[in-house]
Design brief:
- The complex is a heterodimer of chains A (598) and B (148).
- In chain A, 61% of the residues lie in helices and 15% in strands.
- Chain A has 598 residues and is α+β, with helices and mostly antiparallel strands.
- In chain A, strands 1, 2, 3, 4, 5, 6 and 7 form a 7-stranded antiparallel sheet that branches. A 5-stranded mixed sheet of chain A has the order 9-11-12-14-13.
- Chain B has 148 residues and is α/β, with parallel strands linked by helices.
- Chain B is 46% helix and 16% strand.
- Chain B contains 6 helices and 5 strands.
- A 5-stranded parallel sheet of chain B has the order 2-1-3-4-5, with helices on both faces.
- Classes of the chains: A alpha+beta (598), B alpha/beta (148).
- At the A-B interface, helix 10, helix 11 and helix 12 of A face helix 2 and helix 6 of B.
């Protein structure tokens, strides 16, 4: 449930009861108004009755005065009659106004007034008579009759009003009951409605709240699981992992990282990376650039420089291979740095072993031809030695000796070429590539002849800096590969010329063959160690080692399909720069992502 | 090629020309190593043999077919036809003639060594060569004699 919906429900919970209560109040007000109206009518009846009684009293006063006068003929008794005379019509007028809306009472009133007029007419006649005549009994009876008629009419009005009053009283009581009924009814109904409404709203809010709680719990569980998952993964992987915050302080180290650095997590947490992860250059022993600074500077994934040594807490050292990457938040801002590294001491050793192994394998590939190249001159020398023993002609003996020397020289040349595959200077020296390729071809000549492959060569004089034994190994490999690919009756062409790549002068060696070319499915595997198309005859390390050596010299090695008219097979292109920063201990193994990342 | 190196001169020096040619065994030497071949020829001639030489399998087979040959000394490792192939061809045309296979390699395939009569590694020395050649010629001669 979002906040807007919640506010809406809150508003409803406030507004709906108020509206309902207003409706209840309106109904009650209407009921009370009705009650007040009924009460007014009751009061009206009382007023009418009181006025009628007042009128009756005045009329009786008049009659009493007249009687007194009739009996005594004393005008003093007329005082009440005289004083009531102006008041009676006023009373009638007031009553007429009171019952103006009740036609029955109105007609009764006017009938009563008529009878009173008649009696008044009688009274005036009596007053006009001589006093003695007024004492007549008949006259008295006549007066009494008229007055009785007046009284009877007044009584009618009173009785009618009393009936009205009683009906009105009943109405008032009914209205009181109705008010009570409405009051209780609306209170109950509105209370119930408010209760139901609030209940439903609260249910809504409460279920949303429960859903939020469940969601929070679920997220919490997920977070926990994901944390466990990551922690287990981190702890299980074989590489060291260190995560730092954006200031380069250590947040987390996995088990391998703890083992490799020799630091416990509780000691290392919060420390600057360079205190725990001390790295130096293997050769110069100078501190290497802090990966955190490097990542911050480049804002990208970076690799360590080659030959990085980690100094552990106990002072021991190991060779590292590593990379560092920025951790970014959803907006892409850097919030930390993660460092991944592994101990490549063993890998370095096994790479060295593989490289040494491949050197031996090259020797193996050459063994047959070396044996041939050495045994042939040795055979001649042995034969010459036999001839010399029985030779008495000194001139001829001298010739034999010269021949023997020539053949020994040949054997020595082969043996030197063979040895130069292994003997290496400590730093790069000037290498005449033409000479180097020729000496490789000398070693391979026999094998090439045997495989009935012909060689074309266009070699210019190009001199570069480098390690000749390693370069010999490269060209021995590449030429033998080309010879194998060309097969019996095939041919290969070797070109050597100066070449400038990215303003860097150097040499380009191209080896074409007439073989079947490179199949697309093996193209990607060519430079992988142990990949071979030659079964037991190949170690699968030749191209891998060759690429490593060429890269070490700062050059490039590519294999492609030539597209040449005559040499339709593969083309190997080796570029070697004239100057190289390579040192004797530089890794000759292939480095792939490192070279681009670092 | 040095002047003394011609067979005539060598034979004259050794005085072998006067010998009955029919008694002299003829050896055919085939090797692509020209210098080694001629030194080997000198050794064999000094031991009294008549020596024919060829520097490749094809020309060797040509000589083998048209010349009377008593034994063949054949190099294994040659461009084009190798010694094994040359030996097979020789066996097909004249199966009786003994063949010695010379090689710089220590180990040769068995189907090759089974094709020839004997096998010598290069560099073993002239005495080994000569004694084996003598054995071959002797065995061939006695087989011929035995046959009639």
């Amino acid at each position: 449930m979002n906040v807007r919906l919640f506010k809406k429900i809150l508003g409803q919970a406030l507004l709906v009861p108020v509206l309902l209560l207003l409706a209840v109040a309106a109904a009650l007000s209407w009921q009370i108004l009705s009650l007040v109206r009924a009460q007014l009518w009751l009061d009206h009846s009382d007023q009418v009755t009181a006025q009628v009684q007042e009128l009756q009293k005045l009329i009786i006063d008049q009659e009493t005065g007249l009687r007194g006068y009739q009996v005594t003929s004393d005008r003093q008794f007329l005082a009440p009659f005289q004083s009531a005379s102006p008041l009676v019509p006023q009373r009638f007028e007031a009553l007429r106004n009171l019952v103006v809306n009740d036609p029955d009472q109105k007609s009764r009133l006017s009938e009563t007034y008529d009878r009173y007029e008649i009696w008044l007419g009688f009274a005036q006649r009596v007053l006009a008579m001589p006093p003695d005549n007024a004492r007549d009994t008949d006259l008295n009876l006549r007066g009494k009759e008229l007055m009785d008629d007046v009284r009877a009419h007044i009584q009618k009005i009173l009785i009618a009003e009393d009936r009205l009053r009683r009906a009105r009283f009943v109405a008032v009581r009914r209205q009181v009951r109705s008010v009570l009924f409405v009051l209780i009814g609306t209170a109950l109904v509105s209370g119930l409605l408010i209760a139901i409404f609030l209940y439903s709203r609260l249910r809504l809010v409460s279920s949303a709240y429960q859903a939020s709680l469940d969601e929070a719990q679920r997220k919490n569980d997920e977070l926990f699981q994901s944390k466990q998952w990551f922690e287990t993964t981190l702890e299980s992987i074989g590489d060291g992992v260190i995560a730092c915050d954006d200031q380069g302080r250590i947040d987390l180290m996995n088990q391998v990282a703890r083992q490799m650095t020799g630091w416990a997590m509780e000691d290392a947490r919060g420390l600057p990376l360079d205190q725990v992860f001390k790295i130096i250059n293997e050769e110069t022993r100078q501190a290497a650039e802090n990966p955190v600074d490097k990542v911050r500077r480049l804002n990208a994934v970076v690799g360590l420089a080659n030959h990085t040594l980690l100094i552990r807490k106990d002072g021991t050292e190991m060779v590292l291979d590593d990379s560092a990457a920025p951790i970014r938040d959803s907006r892409g801002d850097m919030t930390g740095i993660v460092l991944i590294f592994r101990d490549v001491t063993v890998k370095r050793r096994s790479d060295s072993a593989l490289i040494a192994n491949e050197k031996l394998a090259v020797a193996g590939r050459l063994a047959a031809s070396i044996a041939h190249e050495i045994h042939n001159p040795l055979d001649s020398v042995a034969n010459l030695h036999f001839l010399l023993r029985s030779e008495i002609d000194s001139a001829r003996g001298h010739e034999y000796l010269q021949l023997a020397e020539q053949e020994l020289g040949r054997a020595l040349q082969i043996s030197r070429a063979m040895l130069s595959l292994y003997r290496e200077p400590d730093s790069p020296i000037s290498v005449d590539l033409e000479d180097l390729v020729e000496s490789v071809l000398l070693l391979l000549e026999r094998k090439i002849e045997q495989q009935q492959v012909t060689i074309q060569r266009q070699l210019s004089v190009v001199t570069i800096q480098g390690f000749p034994a390693e370069l010999r190994q490269v060209f021995t490999n590449l030429i033998l590969n080309a010879v194998d690919a060309a097969g019996a009756g095939g041919s290969i062409m070797i070109n050597l010329q100066p070449e400038t790549v990215r303003e860097e002068p150097g040499a380009l060696i191209e080896i074409f063959d007439t073989g079947p070319g490179i199949k697309p499915e093996i193209e990607k595997s060519l430079f992988q160690p142990f990949f071979t198309t030659k079964g037991d005859k190949g170690t699968g390390l030749g191209l891998w080692v060759s690429l490593g050596i060429v890269q070490k010299h700062g050059g490039t090695l590519d294999m492609l399909n030539s597209g040449h008219d005559v040499y339709k097979g593969a083309l190997v292109r080796v570029y070697l720069p004239a100057r190289t920063d390579a040192t004797a201990i530089d890794r000759a193994t292939v480095h792939t992502e490192k070279s681009t990342a670092a | 090629m040095p002047e003394w190196y011609t067979p005539q001169k060598l034979n004259a020096a050794e005085g072998l020309t006067e010998k009955n040619l029919s008694a002299v065994a003829t050896i055919l030497c085939i090797d692509d190593e020209a210098l080694g071949l001629h030194i080997r020829k000198t050794v064999l001639e000094k031991a009294g043999y008549r020596v024919l030489t060829a520097t490749d399998g094809a020309s060797g087979l040509g000589l083998f077919d048209c010349e009377p040959i008593d034994a063949v000394v054949l190099d294994y490792s040659m461009p084009g036809m190798n010694g094994g192939q040359v030996a097979s061809a020789m066996r097909r045309s004249k199966p009786g003639i003994p063949i010695m296979l010379l090689s710089a390699y220590m180990h040769l395939p068995e189907d090759v060594t089974s094709e020839v009569d004997t096998f010598v590694t290069k560099g073993e020395g002239a005495q080994v060569l000569l004694s084996k050649v003598a054995q071959l010629v002797e065995s061939a001669r006695s087989a011929e004699g035995g046959n009639g």
